[in-house]
Amino acid sequence: MSVDNRPTLGAPDDDPWLWLEEVEGARALDFVEKQNRLTLDRFAGTAFERDRDILAAIYDRPDNIPYVGRRGGYLYNLWKDAEHPRGLWRRTTLAEFRKPNPAWDIMLDIDKLAANEGEDWLLSSISSQPASSRAILSLSRGGSDAVTLREFDADTKSFVAEGFTLPEAKGGVDWLDPDTLLLSSAYGEDMVTSSGYARTVRLWRRGESADQAQTILETTADHMGIFGSVDDTGAQPRAWIIDQIDFFNYGIWLRDEAGSTTKLDLPTGIWMQAHGDWFAMKLRTDWSVGGRSYAADAVLGISLSAFLVGSRDFTILFEPGPRRALQGFFWVAGRLVLSILDELKPRFEICTPSAAGWSHETLGGLPEIGVVDVWPLDRHSSGSNGDLLANVQDPLTPPSLLLIERGVASPTVLKQAPKTFNADGLVVTQHEAISIDGERIPYVQTGPAGETGDAPVYMSAYGGFGLAVKPHYDSSLGKLWLERGGTTVQANLRGGGEFGTRWHDAGRYAGKKLSHDDFAAVAADLVRRGVTQPKRIAAQGGSNGGILITNMLVRYPERFGALFCTIPLIDMRRYTKLLAGASWIAEYGDPDKPEEWEWLKTYSAYHNAKPGQPYPPILIATTRRDDRVHPGHARKMAAKLQAMGYEAWFYEPAAGGHGYGKDNKERAGFQVLGFQFLKEKIGWPDGEV
Fold first, then answer.
1. What's the whole-model pTM score?
2. Tens-digit pLDDT profile for residues 323-364
3. Within 10 A of 574 (CB to CB), how many other CB atoms are there?
4. Domain range holding 561?
5. Are residues 414 and 426 in the same domain?
6. How far apart are CA 493 and CA 13, in angstroms?
7. Is residue 173 in some structural domain?
8. Residues with Cβ < 8 Å from 417, sequence gap 6 or more?
9. How would you write 504-541 as a 3-class SS string?
10. Same domain, yes or no: 249 and 346
11. Tens of pLDDT along 35-63?
12. Which one of 156, 639, 647, 656 counts the least CB within 10 Å of its CB?
């Protein structure tokens, strides 16, 4: 398997594989091409093609839920299927959408656009005007984060001649008025931070080039980035400008209709959203102000106008508990909706401000178990009547899309996703493992009832950036793992947000190693409970989860039979120098500071890999168009392991961005390649127990 793996001596940073960081370098691409050929020749046979086509057909089903957002009188949707792999941007009415087979009006066929222009276009995002047919489309090449901006008219279904356009860069825009945009883009000389994001928010007027746009606010190059958004819920449009210091800290500025900017006197570690004359914020740390103290993770509300003239008379809208944490919030039609996990159960509370104070109620009619997500139907707050959408599912129940009219009516089912696998005889159970320091680590297990001691197990987790993982309905795992007799396990590691900031912080910085201990503890608990044995456990993780999987390889190799590491972060010595890496210092630490490198090196698997160890087989996969996590992480780790004589496979398709493919067939192929590898290596190649 080893291809041209002789190191180059004397490379910078004492890294003999540094040349693999040259994304389009001839020698690096030769390595990738040879590795891809070996991996595909070995694992992409008849069974791969069969399962890829099965999964792609599920992703392309015409009865999948078309998720929508409303603007004006239309519901808009981006739809992909076998005939339109890049997608259709389309619209319909709510009355039509309620029908089993609604009629759609096609705004833009992205496949035709890509073919006509000879570009690898995908539609990344859309910024629309509240009361106009105009929108700015963000077009991505191959799924990359960097986008090209172009003005589009939905009524004429065409790009606007001499309209707003911007060459490829990371960032976007929002509409201040029909002829003025807030531009938050890394495009232009000295407009990019060390993390690769926008360094300025600019006022871009119709008829002028982006280079001529007036800078409203500029941040320093060492901050993560800066961005602006337009708020149309007040008496006049206003702009919020967010100076993102790092992943979890912000400076917040308000720009009024007269063009004056005011920095809000707030802690940096908050989430905040305003609506009309009110705003709410969640604290990340304890805060004392106005003679009162507020706990970390509490949500506070106050009148914006009162705050701006000096009032600090906050109302506590939410108080956390040891295993009760806010997951997010949003405003809709003058009401604040709080999304909460309470012992991992979904809860939604509504807070309504008035001159007399804040009222509280619970959003009813939704399941108390499983996964429930709620969001506004309308893309713009102005004109919203408060309609909400809810998505309800669990590992064995496909999603239902519900409409909650005006946020108070009983939910009604708009769409029901199809059952894509046979769940007969399968059960979902929740368990807890005890980690290395005694902490209880929850995990959800799905599969046949009872313990056989030899179940083929697919484990996954994330454990980073305060993001909670939830047990969704997963067609790929359901059809290709569960239906064939396997068991899946999803772990809630420290570093996530399931139990608030204290849970996140416990798995951040030096604590990231504890997050990995948590995952290993879950694997051990499966064996202790008689579910399986180590050689039958397959594990997968991506992005931040790539650090996790490679640490299972080098720290806990005896607990796994095979590992699948996707779009991964691995080299913790150089990660800040690669693409968006500097933006993650607040999660991991700065390797250029000796005291922080001391903990980073404990989980930099690229540096900790040693020859002669009992490492299980691993497949490391990335994409060349990933401009967020550099493909060099995956390339270098595979090369190093191969040079040491380990069974390490590598795969890198050209497109996909920070994901698994630009269309459903590519995404299915990426996933199935991993399944084929894992099944074979844990002794389950035919998918039968």
1. 0.95
2. 999 999 999 999 999 999 999 999 999 999 999 999 999 999
3. 21
4. 12-56+420-681
5. no
6. 32
7. yes
8. 63, 64, 65, 393, 398, 399, 400, 401, 473
9. HHHCCHHHHHHHHHHHHHHHHHHHHCCCCCHHHEEEEE
10. no
11. 999 999 999 999 999 999 999 999 999 99
12. 156
